[in-house]
Each structure stands twice: as C-alpha cells, then as structure tokens.
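Students often ask why we bother encoding 3D structure as a string. The short answer is that it lets us treat folding as translation between two languages. Here is a chain of 87 residues written in the first language.
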Amino acid sequence: MNKFFKQQDIKVNTIMEINDLDAIVRMVESGLGVALIPYAGLWIRSTPPVQIHHLGDNSLVREVVLAYRYTDRQQPQINALKQVLGL
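And here it is in the second language, the structure alphabet:
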C-alpha cells in the first residue's frame, strides 16, 4: 500500500493498522482520520456518514499470503486454500 501512496503523491502518517473494516469506518465516522479500505463489509449495507471516493483506474493490488505450519502442509483445508489462491 505504501507504493500506491507514493505513486499518488499521498503523504501519510500511520499511527495504527486495524484489519476490521467496520471498526475502521466507525473510527473515520468519529473523526479519527481517513482510511483506504476495500469496498466490502457490513458498513456498505447502510449509508455511512463518511465520504467515499472510489479509486477508479488507480486501483491498488494487495498481496495475500498463506502461512501454515510445515507439518500441516497436506491438510485438506490447506490444499483447498492453496487451490483457491492459485498457489
């Protein structure tokens, strides 16, 4: 994401990282800053009192990593995830 910000000439001062989209939106609603998040989650079901700007052609790609214990490498769940992720 830092690469995306640099390409857009956006300067950020990151003070925390949170993975819960709904909590992030609530924090923005409370005036605690701005966020760059996927358009997904429960918060899109209603009209939040925040400004939403779609990236359009300036989309950003997130890398997804699958980490698992070596001893679990043959577990059906691991193999299913690997298949879905194209690994």
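Translate back mentally: The radius of gyration is 17 Å. Keep this in mind for the problem set.
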